[in-house]
Amino acid sequence: MKVIVAEKCGFCHGVRNAISMAEKILAQENDVYSLGPIIHNKNMVERLAKSGLKTVNKVEEIRSGTVLIRSHGAAPEQIAKLKEKGVNIVDATCVLVKRVQHIAGELERDGYKVVIIGDENHPEVRAVVGCTEDAVVIADESDLHKLPENARLGLVCQTTQSREYFSRMLGAIARGSFSELKVINTLCQEAIKRQQSAVQLCKQVDIMFVLGSLESANTRKLAELCKKYNSETFHLQNWNELDKNILFGKNVAGVTAGASTPEWIIAEFVKNLEAFGAGSR
What we know:
Elements: E1 2-5, H1 13-28, E2 32-35, H2 42-50, E3 53-56, E4 66-69, H3 76-85, E5 88-91, H4 95-109, E6 113-117, H5 123-129, E7 136-138, E8 151-157, H6 163-174, E9 178-183, H7 189-202, E10 207-211, H8 217-229, E11 233-236, E12 252-257, H9 263-279
Parallel strand pairs: 1-12, 2-3, 2-4, 4-5, 6-7, 6-8, 8-9, 10-11, 10-12
């Protein structure tokens, strides 16, 4: 079986930076915490845990040591609580996420009702909400009732969403009632490049694999987009999850991966996929 890997896939700069910072701190200190999983990849989190990184979900679980703020960021209230505890804070928030946080706060100070387009349960979105007094999160058309009528709306978007989703939601909001609409494009260009690369590849292959955590928003978006153009698209976390029966009758496979998927998972998957094809001839 021929295997083609998407031109753009795997770790983005923000994730690579967060992992690098974690590894550096773990080499120097023993009492190191991550406020929430540093990235959305179980394999990577487990590897760092073996090096001593303790993942916690609440500030209250931390008493001392060094705390790593994950790539998705944290709300100002959480940062303030950590400072009160006197712990050492290392900020690994993606610079693009920091930009959204800054823009949201600025829009609110300028008198706009902040509207965040995205998943309200995603840690990035929760952190952005925490940078405002009263932001509204809109995930789909069913949430439009949350918007106040005839208000000045300031819109931002979760960085890992697609252009198609962002434009669809903008259209839905624009059909409503408002006095002013200010839109800031906060989409991650690296995520968009990965989406474009994945869609282009999935149209050329018999079967498409999207590698990455099921909790990763950008990976789920890749799988969703590929599925639109190739029904034989499968979202897997690693090689162990593959049902090899789906490979029979397929000649060319495409592989892409989310921004939080380590290179070794991609390499292992591709190597095993190629070996499976060779052994089945």
